[in-house]
Amino acid sequence: MSGLIHFPLQDVCPYTGAKGVEPIDLPSTGTLWSWTTVNASPPGYHGAVPYSLGIVEMNVDPGVLRVVGRIENSISPESSISLESPIPLEQGMDMTVGAANVALADDRDPSESEGPDGADPARRRNPPVGLTWAFFPRRVHRGNP
Amino acid sequence: MTAHAMGAKALREAMDNAGVGRGDFQAAFCATAYGGVASGHRVLGALGLTGVPIIDVEAGCASGGAALSLAAAAIRSEQYDTVLVVGIEKMAKGMIRSSFFPTWMEQAGLSAGPAYFAMRAQRLLREQGLSSEDLAELVVKNRAAGVHNPDAMFRKEVSASQVLDSKTVCDPLTLFMLCAPNEGAAALVLRRSDLADQDSPQILSARLRSHLPGSVLDESTPLAGIDDSDIEGPTSLAAADAFTEAGVGVDDLDVVECQDTDAARELLVWTELGLCAPGEQSRILADGEFGIDGRLAVNPSGGLLSKGEPLGASALGQVIELYRQLRGQAGTRQHEAARLGLAHTIGRGANASVTILSN
User: Fold this and answer.
1) Are the CB atoms for B249 and B243 separated by under 8 Å?
2) CA A126 to each of CA A80, B44, B105: distance values in angstroms, whole numbers, following the listed order
3) What pTM value is reported for the model?
4) What is the CATH number of domain B3-93+178-358?
5) Does B168 reach chain A within 8 Å, measured CB to CB?
6) Fewer beta carbons under 10 A from the terminal one: N or C of chain B?
7) Chain A residues within 8 angstroms (CB to CB) of chain B
């Protein structure tokens, strides 16, 4: 067994091809390794823009694991956690793992909704959403634990 | 014009140039990522040339390099003496949609190609002591060369400030630092040495490699990686194979066509191919060392930043540029002493191709 850590879980070790991969719990915190902001919707994406993507580095045994995910850092309709104000992102800053809603394609049949010309206010209020893991900057008060 | 019609046009031109007609070849390879089922059959069918084995090859941005590696191997093994290699593509505008990504990744916003390019660019700047100005100067270099290429999409010079002031796509990459998806075709006729025109350049090696796991910013776009400082990227792997097979070294090269999907990609490739040491790029750009008239001409065609990127065709387009450079047919972008050339592509998969030609 390579002992190396991979994400997400898969049946076969990507490094050695060995079977018998064991699931482990990843840390719920890490540090920001890289990030950028996406200003235009990529194909197949139905959420709000701009949004941020980043890579968070987690300490694992052995070494480090660098995980890609959304960076949720401001009040947005997609964010399941709202912060009072965006925190300036910095290389190496502390991050917490959480979850965020993402908009899905609204392919429901409009004829199934109530009311004239299919305009159902509840429908507009409740577009279909999915859930993804995401990283949130931590407000750390250094020297004041 | 459809991608297949462009392919037929390019192939007809290549065959006329080589003096090869119906009955003179035994197989055809067609490189494309988006052309659809049996694209090669549609290209050859348009010219009334079907009947031989026709094989479509897909390897992302390296599709053309992959097709060439198969074609070269078939000639070398004496399975065939003459084969056709054609690359075609017609891309939608804007960010590339790739069936490589599962739907959930698209929905989560994790399929944004330029975001990964941007994070790789940030890492390059951070680890090799480069700046956004260096990225801009790279674009200036390639666009200056593109002015001399009648086949290029963009034929106007740009200044560093124009590059830096163009719209930010994903920080630090601006619009002018990214190549444009577009359409095009390229075709080659590959022949056994004793049948080929004696002035024609020779393929010394055409190699393809995929990625080793572990690097989070690799073109395989994994969701996680580990400390990758000891993991060789596919470009270095393919280059090592090609240099060994060709029996030449990096210092022997006169002209290089390499992947400049974005400005940072080319600056990184310089170090991956061994053209320079990490951190030397600023000085090289300032000295014009890799310009058309420099010690080593890198992307004298103008690169993808000038030509745009038709995926299936682009790697073959690079080889055609080397062919012209080595034959002294490159017009006002001719590098004076072009005797040995290298073409490199890296892209989705990950796939990297390296082709070495000599005259």
Assistant:
1) yes
2) 14, 52, 22
3) 0.93
4) 3.40.47.10
5) yes
6) N
7) 4-8, 14-15, 34-40, 42-47, 51, 53-55, 63-70, 91, 102-105, 130, 132
Terminal alpha carbon distance of chain B: 34
Strands B340-347 and B351-358, how do they pair? antiparallel
Q: Residue A110: is its pLDDT beyond 70? A: no
Q: Which two tokens stand for residue B34?
A: 């988006």
**Residue B282, token pair as written in the block:** 């600023």
Q: Does B127 touch chain A (CB under 8 A)?
A: no
Q: Is the pLDDT of residue A75 over 50?
A: no
- CA distances to B59, B102, B114, B221 from B211, rounded to whole Å, are 12, 20, 20, 11
Q: Which residues of chain B have pLDDT under 70?
A: none
- The B residues from 68 to 97 touching A (CB cutoff 8 Å) are 94-97
- From B98, which residue of chain A is nearest by alpha-carbon distance? A43
Give the separation between CA B280 and CA B239, rounded to whole angstroms. 20
What are the residue boundaries of the structural domains of chain B, listed by start?
Answer: 3-93+178-358
Which of B1, B35, B14, B4 is CA-nearest to residue B316? B14
A130 contacts on B by Cβ (under 8 Å): 104, 107-108
Tell me if B109 and A37 make a contact (CB, 8 A cut-off).
no
Name which of B118, B224, B226 is nearest A36 (Cβ-Cβ).
B118
> Which residues of chain A are within 8 Å of residue B224 when distances are taken between CB atoms?
6-8, 65-68
pLDDT confidence tier of residue A2, bands split at 50, 70 and 90 = confident
* B109:A8 CB<8 A: no
Considering only the beta carbons, identify the residue of B101, B112, B225 that sits closest to A38.
B112
- Distance separating alpha carbons of residues B306 and B143, to the nearest angstrom: 6
Walk across the sheet containing B54-57 and list its strands.
B54-57, B27-31, B82-90, B183-191
Candidates B154, B34, B160, B27; CA nearest to B88 is B34
Using one digit for the tens of pLDDT, what is the confidence trace for B116-137? 999 999 999 999 999 999 999 9
Report CA-CA distances (Å) from B224 to A47, A66, B4, B10. Answer: 23, 5, 38, 41
Cβ contact, residue pair B123, A132, below 8 Å: no
Give the tens place of pLDDT for each residue, B162-207. 999 999 999 999 999 999 999 999 999 999 999 998 899 999 999 9
Does the pLDDT value for residue A115 go beyond 80?
no
B240 Cβ under 8 Å from any chain A Cβ:
no
Report the C-alpha gap between B61 and B64 in whole angstroms: 8
Q: Do the strands B202-210 and B351-358 form a parallel or antiparallel pair, or are they unpaired?
A: antiparallel
Q: How many residues does chain A have?
A: 145
Closest Cα of chain A to B222: distance in Å? 8
- pLDDT tens-place string over residues B100-120: 999 999 999 999 999 999 999
- Does B125 contact chain A (CB < 8 Å)? no
